[in-house]
């Protein structure tokens, strides 16, 4: 039987949404075909940015920086304020594009745009709070203080799974900090990028800021390479694989540029005997299955006390069997497709390796809807019971696989939790305060995000986002992440009329 691809006629709807966001016809061309992971159907084809245009974009961003840095920070905030308003106005349009390109269910696609609106609010407030400290000088008649200045051009390299939110974390802060931005989005989510960029262009124009403060380049690896190598790019903020980070970090460091790296996550949760299992169940399922396991923060490892493992597995398997998998446009479906065939293959390889290492697949792992959508990759989320010592649980596989292991003693659980090379997000489910505190303490979770009675994903923008070890060490979004987009100067002012030297040094 030959199956015929069912189309959802996404292309015309997405073209309308792109036009509503202000994407103009010059973006289109024959260089790059885009496809939706929902059905495999083609969307819109695009024109690539040429090498000369990439060079011009970096040069324009650099020269715009020289004037943008002089604009008072609260005035710079006006651009971001307007961007947030336009994102609010076009929330549905942009979410529809994100959904068509990244495969998210409607609620998560809308949530991604909400995350952009939230960081705009945050950054507008921050534009009036670029605080520096004043310290007491050890010398009479002296003032010692610090000031924070704009840094330069920020190169943002973003991933398909949060095609626009992570860019906006970087860009909202970079712009209020007085930096300019050149964006190289994932090749698979260029339409979301074009729409986001068009809304920002409108915000920039309406606020009277220079148009060149933000640039979008539609390229493959070559464009990213230019950002990494160009000395005018003061900071490279990159989200993606550990392999990518290993290429970027030494190259940027070689020229003493700065990086913010947000690389792999292999996020685990410890479930203790006192945990509220129904609450834990909901937290686990959202974190493990949401975005079809394709968040950096997706839950991939469960470390469960041996006394409750059978009960929890029973509940999890039942919950998984009630999940609807299919076209995310249908609001009854909670699990959309993997981004592409390569992701599906990686998932199958990981499951085969898990079986080889004495793992037992308790549920899921199979491809579904292949006849209906031969070019789209829908899978049943998998739960795999693994022995405590195994190789495969150390890898991040960007797919919905949840490995379940057990522990007897809480210290052993923490050791097992920290035994992987990545360090992004983590969680403990417990009603025991001492266990919660130990998990959050210096010898507890070694991740950048450590939660209690909440899953590993779905962080709010107000906190700093990022992680340790192979995750790369960068911090984006809230708290004092803004400092990474600025340079710090220490100023000593002498109004004493004398020239006393510090540390009591006598000279001349
Ligand atoms: C990512 O997967 O790169 O915490 C970002 C979360 C989202 C952001 C994820 N707020 O899951």
Outline the structure in words.
The protein is of the alpha/beta class and 508 residues long. The chain folds into two domains: 4-263 and 472-488, Aldehyde Dehydrogenase, Chain A, domain 1 (3-Layer(aba) Sandwich); 267-464, Aldehyde Dehydrogenase, Chain A, domain 2 (3-Layer(aba) Sandwich), CATH 3.40.309. Helix content is 38%, strand content 21%. It has 14 helices and 23 strands. The chain has helices spanning 10-21, 51-68, 73-89, 91-102, 106-126, 165-177, 190-207, 221-229, 242-254, 277-289, 309-321, 341-356, 410-418, 433-440, and strands at 28-35, 42-46, 134-135, 142-150, 153-157, 180-184, 214-216, 233-239, 258-262, 267-271, 299-305, 360-363, 367-368, 378-379, 382-385, 401-407, 422-423, 425-429, 449-452, 464-465, 468-469, 476-477, 486-494. The chain has a seven-stranded mixed beta sheet with strand order 12-15-16-11-10-18-19, with helices on both faces. Strands 7-6-5-8-9 form a five-stranded parallel beta sheet, sandwiched between helices. Strands 3-4-23 form a three-stranded antiparallel beta sheet, with no helix packed on it. Helix 10 links the parallel strand 10 and strand 11 (299-305). It is globular, with a radius of gyration of 24 Å. The N and C termini lie far apart (95 Å). The model has no long low-confidence stretch (mean pLDDT 97). Bound molecules: 2-aminohexanedioic acid.
SSE blueprint and pairings:
Layout: H1 10-21, E1 28-35, E2 42-46, H2 51-68, H3 73-89, H4 91-102, H5 106-126, E3 134-135, E4 142-150, E5 153-157, H6 165-177, E6 180-184, H7 190-207, E7 214-216, H8 221-229, E8 233-239, H9 242-254, E9 258-262, E10 267-271, H10 277-289, E11 299-305, H11 309-321, H12 341-356, E12 360-363, E13 367-368, E14 378-379, E15 382-385, E16 401-407, H13 410-418, E17 422-423, E18 425-429, H14 433-440, E19 449-452, E20 464-465, E21 468-469, E22 476-477, E23 486-494
Parallel strand pairs: 5-6, 5-8, 6-7, 8-9, 10-11, 10-18, 11-16, 15-16, 18-19
Antiparallel strand pairs: 1-2, 3-4, 4-23, 12-15, 13-14, 17-21, 20-22
Helix pairs in contact: 1-4, 1-7, 2-8, 3-5, 3-6, 3-7, 4-5, 4-7, 5-6, 10-11
Bound molecules: 2-aminohexanedioic acid.
């Amino acid at each position: 039987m030959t199956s015929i691809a069912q189309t959802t006629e996404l292309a015309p709807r997405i073209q309308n949404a792109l036009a509503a966001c202000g994407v103009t016809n010059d973006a289109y061309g024959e260089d790059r075909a885009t496809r939706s992971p929902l059905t495999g159907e083609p969307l819109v084809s695009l024109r690539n940015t040429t090498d000369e245009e990439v060079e011009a974009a970096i040069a324009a961003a650099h020269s715009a920086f020289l004037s943008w840095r002089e604009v008072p920070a609260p005035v710079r905030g006006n651009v971001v304020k307007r961007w947030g308003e336009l994102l609010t106005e076009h929330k549905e349009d942009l979410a529809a594009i994100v959904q068509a390109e990244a495969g998210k269910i409607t609620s998560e696609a809308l949530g991604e745009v909400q995350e952009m609106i939230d960081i705009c609010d945050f950054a507008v407030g921050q534009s009036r709070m670029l605080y520096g400290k004043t310290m007491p000088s050890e010398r009479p008649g002296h003032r010692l203080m610090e000031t924070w200045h704009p840094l330069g051009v920020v190169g943002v390299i973003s991933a398909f799974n949060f095609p626009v939110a992570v860019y906006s974390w970087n860009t909202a802060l970079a712009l209020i900090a007085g930096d300019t931005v050149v964006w190289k989005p994932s090749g698979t989510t260029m339409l979301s990028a074009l729409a986001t960029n068009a809304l920002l262009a409108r915000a920039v124009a309406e606020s009277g800021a220079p148009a060149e403060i933000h640039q979008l380049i539609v390229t493959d690896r070559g464009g990213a390479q230019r950002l990494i190598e160009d000395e005018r790019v003061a900071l490279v903020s990159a989200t993606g694989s550990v392999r990518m980070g290993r290429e970027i970090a030494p190259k940027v460091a070689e020229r003493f540029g700065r990086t913010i790296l947000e690389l792999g996550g292999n996020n685990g949760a410890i479930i203790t005997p006192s945990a509220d299992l129904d609450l834990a169940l909901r937290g686990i399922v959202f974190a493990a299955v949401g975005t079809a396991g394709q968040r950096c923060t997706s839950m991939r490892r469960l470390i469960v006390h041996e006394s409750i493992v059978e009960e929890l597995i029973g509940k999890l398997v039942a919950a998984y069997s009630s999940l609807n998998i299919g076209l995310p446009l249908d609001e009854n479906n909670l699990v959309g497709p993997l981004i592409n065939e390569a992701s599906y293959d990686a998932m199958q390889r990981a499951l085969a390796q898990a079986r080889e290492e004495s793992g037992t697949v308790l549920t899921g792992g199979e491809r579904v809807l292949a006849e209906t959508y031969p070019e789209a990759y829908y899978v049943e989320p998998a739960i795999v019971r693994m022995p405590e010592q195994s190789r495969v649980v150390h890898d991040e596989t960007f797919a919905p696989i949840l490995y379940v292991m057990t522990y007897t003693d809480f210290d052993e659980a923490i050791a097992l939790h920290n035994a992987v090379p990545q360090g992004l997000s983590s969680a403990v489910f417990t009603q025991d305060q001492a266990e919660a505190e130990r998990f959050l303490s210096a010898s507890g979770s070694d991740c950048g995000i450590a939660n209690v009675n909440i899953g590993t994903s779905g962080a709010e923008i107000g906190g700093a986002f990022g992680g340790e070890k192979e995750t790369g060490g960068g911090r984006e979004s809230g708290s004092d992440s803004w400092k990474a987009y600025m340079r710090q100067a220490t100023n000593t002012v002498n109004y004493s009329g004398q020239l006393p030297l510090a540390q009591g040094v006598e000279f001349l």
